[in-house]
Amino acid sequence: MTASLSSPVYPLVTSSRATPRVLSIAGSDPSGGAGIQADLKSIAAHGGYGMAAITALTAQNTMGVHAVHVPPVEFLRQQLDAISSDIDIDAVKIGMLGDAAVIDEVRRWLEEVRPAVVVLDPVMVATSGDRLLRESAEKALRSLLPLADLITPNLPELAMLLGEPEAPDWSSALDQGKRLAAECGNTVLVKGGHLAGSECPDALVNTSGLLRRDVVEIAGPRVETQNSHGTGCSLSSALATVQARTGDWEASLREVKPWLLQALMSSDALEVGQGSGPVHHFHHQQGLKPGAFAAALWNHATPELEAIYSLRFIQELQSGSLPEPWFNYYLAQDAIYLNGYSRVLARAGALAPTEEEQLFWAKASQQCLEVESELHRNWLGSRETSTVTGPVTKSYVDHLLASSASGSYAVVLAAILPCYWLYAEVGQQLHTAYVDAGAPADHAYADWLRTYSDEDFAEATRKAINFTDSAAVGASDGERDAMVEAFVQSCRYETAFFDAPRLFA
Ligand SMILES: Nc1ncnc2c1ncn2[C@@H]1O[C@H](COP(=O)(O)OP(=O)(O)OP(=O)(O)O)[C@@H](O)[C@H]1O
Ligand SMILES: Cc1ncc(CO)c(N)n1
């Protein structure tokens, strides 16, 4: 077989849309956790443009279904035609259908329109146990299965579609999945939501070679929550959306399952209803609370602080027994470091989003140079020191300069912060210990320890923490990860800096 260059038989890149247009054909849940309401949230959460043709109206909440109203089927057809006569549909998700007349109408429409991706969630019974499909319609539903690319039954639905008893365990559920896939000629998602135990696996099953293997299982933990209202709806519409983008069921499930896990884990925060509540579709867009990011950074810093306190340099600086060449090395390297640090503070000023922050960093940059000159004037002039940049000083300054080259204000601040925060913390600790020991005047490093109690520096540190925290609130997930990385590296260099005299003096 030859393929012409202009129209490849097997295109290497499948056509995919950045914002897939996804239609949910399903029932309405006015409490917002299941049905079309869940579908639209789920589609939007995955970057799709959501549309909805309503098959049935339910009166339900998190406790149960009070009533079901199925409007005339002609009106459903009018909704479907209104959409397909105007809009290209990239994927369809089918949920609650109600009765056989609705199923027949949807089948006729599907046969005419032939959407590229069809996910069928064979909704029969709500989480609360109430029926959402007439028993007499079960046969009609079976006839719809071959028109779907993916079927997503839960364990009772899987059994019903096969006319078998419900699978007692996961391996028999997978066998049932294989039988249904073979029968319908499409892919079945076997869902572990109804299993007992601490695991909640899902598996894609296709026996015709479409997948990497006949059964592609994706493991997952079970979340201890009663908030599972609408998990099936949310999962199937998310899969339809992501599939329109990836064209790969396994990749789609690998993207959607961790999202659903987080949505279940964050469900308590919604505080919706007294029964089986909804999942949090937009958990990933929750804004950070003020102070939360700084607190998380501090958790990263605490092991480093412990390491600092256990260093010989710090213990002997505190007791006064520190060898003088070590102290001299430390001071000389500090002067070199401050010169580089000053440049990075100036860069923070250049990137600052407000004038207040710009001024703060510009002043900090200037003060840093003043401290550097003071070190030379008052401390280094009379001591024997080398002006060669040590390896830790070089690496630390290079790390700061690289962070500032990222161009992200948030990342620069995260890299800058440990020098304030850890130094303020260690300085406070050393000064307090010195004062507690009666501030002995014959302590070899008394003059130096006294410099550590500086309220202006403590105040500047508080401001630096707050600016970093605010920058994180407005940052993207990726930028926040880079902030943590930059902060953690700087913390490590702080420790290494105090330990450098032992190694290099
Ligand atoms: N407690 C849980 N912890 C983790 N994942 C879960 C939990 N409950 C359900 N899931 C996941 O949710 C999805 C839906 O599974 P489930 O078997 O509950 O479907 P369903 O019964 O059709 O859902 P619905 O509750 O909407 O009727 C699956 O991916 C399943 O693994
Ligand atoms: C409308 C509707 N569709 C599906 C379900 C299944 O969760 C539900 N409870 N309500």
From TrEMBL:
State the superkingdom: Bacteria
Enzyme Commission number, as recorded: 2.7.1.49, 2.7.4.7
Q: In which pathway does it act?
A: Cofactor biosynthesis; thiamine diphosphate biosynthesis; 4-amino-2-methyl-5-diphosphomethylpyrimidine from 5-amino-1-(5-phospho-D-ribosyl)imidazole: step 3/3
Q: Does the keyword Isomerase apply?
A: no
* Gene Ontology MF: a single term: phosphomethylpyrimidine kinase activity
Kindly state which reaction or reactions the protein catalyses: 4-amino-2-methyl-5-(phosphooxymethyl)pyrimidine + ATP = 4-amino-2-methyl-5-(diphosphooxymethyl)pyrimidine + ADP; 4-amino-5-hydroxymethyl-2-methylpyrimidine + ATP = 4-amino-2-methyl-5-(phosphooxymethyl)pyrimidine + ADP + H(+)
Check the record and name the Pfam families matching this protein: Phos_pyr_kin (PF08543), TENA_THI-4 (PF03070)
Looking at the record, the residues that make up the Pyridoxamine kinase/Phosphomethylpyrimidine kinase domain are: 29-280
> Per the record's keyword annotation, is Lipid biosynthesis included, yes or no?
no
InterPro entries reported in the protein's UniProt record: Haem_Oase-like_multi-hlx (IPR016084), HMP/HMP-P_kinase_dom (IPR004399), PM/HMP-P_kinase-1 (IPR013749), Ribokinase-like (IPR029056), Thiaminase-2/PQQC (IPR004305)
Report any one BP term from Gene Ontology.
thiamine diphosphate biosynthetic process
Can you quote a single GO CC term?
cytosol
What Gene3D superfamilies does its record include? 3.40.1190.20, Heme oxygenase-like (1.20.910.10)
Domain Thiaminase-2/PQQC positions: 312-500
Keywords assigned: ATP-binding, Kinase, Nucleotide-binding, Thiamine biosynthesis, Transferase
User: Its function?
Assistant: Catalyzes the phosphorylation of hydroxymethylpyrimidine phosphate (HMP-P) to HMP-PP, and of HMP to HMP-P.
Q: Which PANTHER family match?
A: HYDROXYMETHYLPYRIMIDINE_PHOSPHOMETHYLPYRIMIDINE KINASE THI20-RELATED, PHOSPHOMETHYLPYRIMIDINE KINASE
Identification of the protein by name: Bifunctional hydroxymethylpyrimidine kinase/phosphomethylpyrimidine kinase
Q: Report which gene this protein is encoded by.
A: thiD
